[in-house]
Structures are given as C-alpha cells and as structure tokens.
Structure prediction request, 295 residues.
Amino acid sequence: MKFRPIEINDYEKASAIMYSGGIENCEHCFPTMLEWSFRHDIQIAIEEETVFMRSKGKKHMWYLFPRGAMDRKKATDMILSDAAQQGMPVSIYGIDEENALFLQENYGHILNVTEERDGADYIYRTSDLATLPGKNYQKKRNHVSRFVRENPDYKFTVITPDNIHRAKKFQTDWNGKYNTEDSWDLHSEQNGIFRLLDNFTTLKLKGAMIETNGEIVAMTIAAPINERMVDIMVEKAYHEINGAYAIINRDFALNCLSQFEFINREDDMGLENLRKAKLSYFPYEIRKKYLAQSR
Prediction:
C-alpha cells in the first residue's frame, strides 16, 4: 500500500467512503482523523475504494479498521502484511462489535481482540441535549440558568468564514491560559483545531461560539459521521465561567444539529473526571469499541 501523510485534498474521496461505511465510531469521520493527524502523524492509503489509515507508535503500527468496497478479509491481510514489512506488531483500532467478531473468528490465532472501554463512544439523542428534559437534566438546566442569569447579554454565534479569526483567537487564548505545563498534547490539539478552522468550508463543518461582554468564552466544532449522527470534535470553554460548557452544549444542539438524530461526543480516554462529565448527560448509548493486537 502507498501510504502518505493525510491531507485536506483527501477529503472528498476518503470522506465519501467513510460516510457510507456503516461504522459510526468517531474515528470513522475524516475531519476527526485530520484533526488528530498532528498528534499521531496519521498516514492514509486508498486502495480499491477502501480507506486505510496508519500511524507509528512506540511499540506497534496502529491501523484504523479499514472501510470501503474491499473484502474485509483481504483488507485485514493487507494491514498485517504492511505491519510485517515495517517490522512491528500490529494494533487495529476503531473496531465495532460486528467486525470484532469477524476478527476473532478469522484471526483469533494471531490477534488478541478485546473490548476497549476507555475508547467507547458516548452517544446522545440530539433532542435530549437540545432541550435537557425531565428530572435527569435538572442540574444541567440549573447550570444553563445560572449562566444566562450572570450573562444576560450573551450571544450565540455560528462560526462562518467571516468570524473564523475570532475562533482562532479564542483557541490561542484558551491554550495560553490552560497549557501551563507546555503540553505537547495540547499544542498538537491546537494545530489540529487550526487545521479544521482553516478548512472549515471545505470540510463542511458546523461550529459555534458563545460571547459575553464582547469576548468569546466558549467554542465548539462538529462534523457529520453519516446522515443521522454528528461528531463533536471540539468543545472548549473557560472553566471559571459558570455554565459556559453547559450553554455551548445546549445551544449548539438546539440551533445547529437538529437534522441529526444522534450526537457522538467521543470517548473519555479513561479519565475519571471526563467520564463523570459524559455520564452526567445521560447517554442514549455507550458504544462499544474493540482493539485487536498481535499476540
């Protein structure tokens, strides 16, 4: 396979294949992988109308489970052959339940297939996040009410080419405020966010900002996974502003995402506080994902 660095010019072809690929994991959304490419040096190959992606880790070659027209056994064999050529063990990620069973049945003798709880995606009904109904969401409604009470002049603004510079400034200010340890993860995340904003129209992204007193205090960016589900790739707010996260979450779902039945808010990476936050929004489903690694 002819792997090369993933780039914006891959969007039209790769995204069309992934969009119709049937897997709704966040990794199977092209803009998401483009965003992560700074952190993980992601490479892409498109063979026989099938998308392959890989990145080199410290101990393994990492491959996204391939999607497209190619027979999945042939595609898996190509991954195993490529990893052997690199002289490294293989890790295949972004695997849904159906394909985990396929890998276990056909490659269980060479691959250890396990559920990856820390990588499970949190799926929500768009209507729940937009309206915060019932007793479950009372605390969230309280956070929203407090924000509105303390910021009666707040504005919800959709991101457009005309205000992308404001979104970039907010991201720069946010990173300067919270990246106190000069974290490479946060620097690479910022580079990925800038890449999304620089190609906002081409990637057909959706985004919004919350403004108070003339200052942007929260921002979010999303991309469609398919016709019924959208992936929230970016959601940032100033931590010290009460309810800033709650208001951007609600208003974005309410004003921009009604065409989608479900919202994928990605995984919690095994971080206790992030898991608690995602559970507090009462997901419709915690979508299982699996990892297959060389034995």
User: Anything to note?
Assistant: The two ends are 23 Å apart (CA to CA). The mean pLDDT is 97.
